[in-house]
């Protein structure tokens, strides 16, 4: 199950990453094709070629202008005369004038076949923009000279523009002439690499996170199986606070509640069995008690003999019988009271008022036993869902036990404290505590004190705490002995609350 889950998570991640990428590859490929269709076509090629031709024509024009100028100078009378002169200086002078007359000229050179040439270079101010030189040569018949060579300078901008346009046109031609779909395929290859990298990354990431997630879910599944098998003590570590963490927390809460209600149901079942027994016992014992009592009285009354020793014995014996019958009657009424515990009917009750009522009805404990009773009501109005009469019975039982324990112990200032307050937590609940500073309960008795008939008292029935627990459970609450470091014994009762209600008076 776990395996399949992490495979699923990885697959999901891969699909999530690759699907939009794949779609974008498709869309971009189509966009590329259509833009290539727009850019790579005959009309564009023709325009480009025409532009290039214009540049060429312009350059041609410049060149032929230079050629004309060179021709004109080569054919001039002035140069012919100068060349005929025997000394070179005259030729040089003529060339210098030629250079000076044409601002485009960089240098001019007359060359003779037997060697010997005259060359004149222009002396110009530098920094007139970038220039490109153009060298032209022409055959002449000027004295000993057979050729004239002139270097002209022209603005470099047009030449560079022409070269650049030429390069662009070449690239363009390569594009058009390349194999069909060449660009498309290159694009797909690059995108393919991107896709592969994204896929590898998402798989690595997916495996990592899926392992983590699956491990947590596996733990939860194992715990669920344990719960299904009846073990309600399992709890799972919620881990990080995310959805799975929340799920685990609510699982823990649910199992906790299941455990509480199972204990509750088991206890109530056990109590109900005990109640059944108590009912039968009470019935069996109660019926013969009255005839026994009457018979004993009759025996005493009807004896009119004169044996004083026998009369005294008879008197003592009937007294014992009457006393024991009285004890048995008290026991049977306790049994039947336990057997016939009324049904709990909780209602919304102000906890402060309820404690006031208890204080009034339990005042006799302090009066008779010399015990100090301390009552601590909640400061703000707190409401509980409780059955007044039954819950008073619980408080009565707890206070009675405390008073009995204090009477035995002879502590310096015997005190019973009853306090009630709202309980902090997720659910609205209230807490009632009954504490005394008596001898406390021996640890070995802790597990048994709530069992019916468990008592350490000669006159006790051991039903008090069992009745308390049954009543509290029927309220949907909990009761336990708080075995903290405090002296004496403290019993804690937690009851459900309807939450804060407005308009109630409380004290
Ligand atoms: N406050 C207390 N201090 C010390 N021991 C206590 C206290 N409350 C209960 N116990 C112990 O728990 C036992 C069970 O109490 P429970 O009220 O169920 O029965 P009981 O008091 O013995 O009998 P009954 O309630 O019929 O008089 C007591 O016998 C006593 O040993
Ligand atoms: Mg008791």
Molecular structure report:
This protein has about 500 residues and is of the alpha+beta class. It has four domains: about 1-40 and about 180-215; about 45-175, no CATH class; about 245-340, Orthogonal Bundle (Helix Hairpins), CATH 1.10.287; about 345-495, 2-Layer Sandwich (Heat Shock Protein 90), CATH 3.30.565. The chain is about 60% helix and about 15% strand. It contains twelve helices and eleven strands. The protein has helices at about 1-40, 40-75, 75-85, 90-100, 155-175, 180-230, 245-300, 310-340, 350-360, 365-370, 390-410, 465-475, and strands at about 105-110, 115-120, 130-140, 145-155, 345-350, 370-375, 385, 415-425, 430-435, 480, 490-495. It has a five-stranded mixed sheet with strand order 6-8-9-11-10. β3 and β4 (about 145-155) form a beta hairpin. The protein starts with a helix and ends in an 11-residue tail after the last strand. The model is unreliable at about 500-505 (pLDDT under 50). Magnesium ion binds near residues 397, 400, 401 and 464.
